[in-house]
Amino acid sequence: EITSLLSLCGGQFSSEQEIRINSPFWILNIPSEEMARGLMKRTVCAKSIFELWGHGKSAGELYASLKNYPTDKMLPYLQSDSTYKVRIHTFNKTLTQAQKVKKIDALEFLPFKGKVNLKNPEHIFWILEDYGMNPNDVPEEPIHLYFGRWIADGQRELIESYSVKKRHFIGNTSMDACLSFIMANHGRVKPNDIVYDPFVGTGGLLISSAHFGAYVCGTDIDYNTIHGLGKASRKNQKWRGPDENIRASLRQYGLEKYYLDALVADFSRPIWRKGMLFDAIITDPPYGIREAPRRMGSQKETVKSDERSTENHFFVSSSYHLSDIFFDLLKFGAEYLVMGGRLVYWLPIYRPEYTEEIIPRHPCLKLISNCEQLLSSHTSRRLITMEKVKEFKDQDANSYLLDGQYMPYRGHNSFREKYFSGVTKRIAKEEKDNQK
């Protein structure tokens, strides 16, 4: 997320950045405070950003680092007519108030000339202490210390204010608010973009993009979901009400002006005119666990599998293999994304069989990131972000059939069976343990 947002703000992520996998603190080289603030206006992963004045693996190293920090960079924030306060944040340890005061007093060598104001200071300084990631083995002294000037907080309050629990219109697969914003950030969604979700469902992914000022639209094969009809997904509620639809969901957050439309359509069949239409495609395709992947069936299947919706709309559905869904998605992104536009989607994985070779590829799309979210001991889903780097030509339409990469991924057509086989094994093991 941070890498995508840096590029959106005009910065560049350096491969030399200091990344500590087992630490909540991250040192970034950002060229300006303006860019840092722009980054924090979007991120839901980062809590706060600071101008780093000094750091070290012990208190002595921290103080030596602070004494070496250029005084001319400190002085604008330490003037006699300014107010300030110092705060302490410890990760994986709780300090008493007396311990905190002692650590703050130890910084008296810094040239503070202003007055302390604990309620409304002009400048806030933080001591950050890292006590490791293991709560069962907390060291007596921190393994790393940082001191810096607070610049801005991230947008973590969006997770609560856009919580699915408070949303009028939800379904069985409505995306968690935090993940929705992360996906929009991976897609580098910005004001006046056009964002499309081909498996729109209840429109949860449209909301996060609209929050960032993009115009949103989507399609789905399910007539009832698009129109907010049929049975409700909430407990103790039988039928959906009049305010349970995608437009009303955006209206709930004051975002209705960004809603273009949602269409009943089969993603496996073309409905869009030729040309680059979308700045980002952000979606969560059905995996066959809570929602079945479907597409329109052939004429021969019509008699066998006619289904009637509550509004007397007929449709014929047949199974839509996972491999076909994802390669249709890549082909669509290659054809309809603008140059530099991004495709962001979730890919379900059976972990014992996972290799990077099974990530679907396309010659027009460059893989930007591949992030795992664990679902169970044997399954996960990966957030795949791809960027359009080459113009689509007709010969690229079925390019995936020409390489040997298509066949390995076909094994994931049985993801549902593998998912539930793991559940069955776990239940059997629990029953066996209970009998003992």
TrEMBL record:
GO terms for cellular component: cytoplasm; tRNA methyltransferase complex. Residues 166-291 form the Ribosomal RNA large subunit methyltransferase K/L-like methyltransferase domain. Its EC number is 2.1.1.214. Signal peptide: none annotated. Residues 20-156 form the tRNA (guanine(10)-N(2))-methyltransferase TRMT11 N-terminal domain. The keyword Cytoplasm applies. It holds the Pfam family Tmrp11_N. Gene3D superfamilies: Vaccinia Virus protein VP39. It catalyses: guanosine(10) in tRNA + S-adenosyl-L-methionine = N(2)-methylguanosine(10) in tRNA + S-adenosyl-L-homocysteine + H(+). GO terms for biological process: methylation; tRNA processing. GO terms for molecular function: tRNA (guanine(10)-N2)-methyltransferase activity; tRNA binding. Keywords: Cytoplasm, Methyltransferase, RNA-binding, S-adenosyl-L-methionine, Transferase, tRNA processing, tRNA-binding. It is found in: Cytoplasm. Catalytic subunit of the TRMT11-TRM112 methyltransferase complex, that specifically mediates the S-adenosyl-L-methionine-dependent N(2)-methylation of guanosine nucleotide at position 10 (m2G10) in tRNAs. This is one of the major tRNA (guanine-N(2))-methyltransferases. Belongs to the class I-like SAM-binding methyltransferase superfamily. TRM11 methyltransferase family. Part of the heterodimeric TRMT11-TRM112 methyltransferase complex; this complex forms an active tRNA methyltransferase, where TRMT112 acts as an activator of the catalytic subunit TRMT11. This is tRNA (guanine(10)-N(2))-methyltransferase TRMT11. The lineage of its organism: Eukaryota, Metazoa, Chordata, Craniata, Vertebrata. The gene is Trmt11.
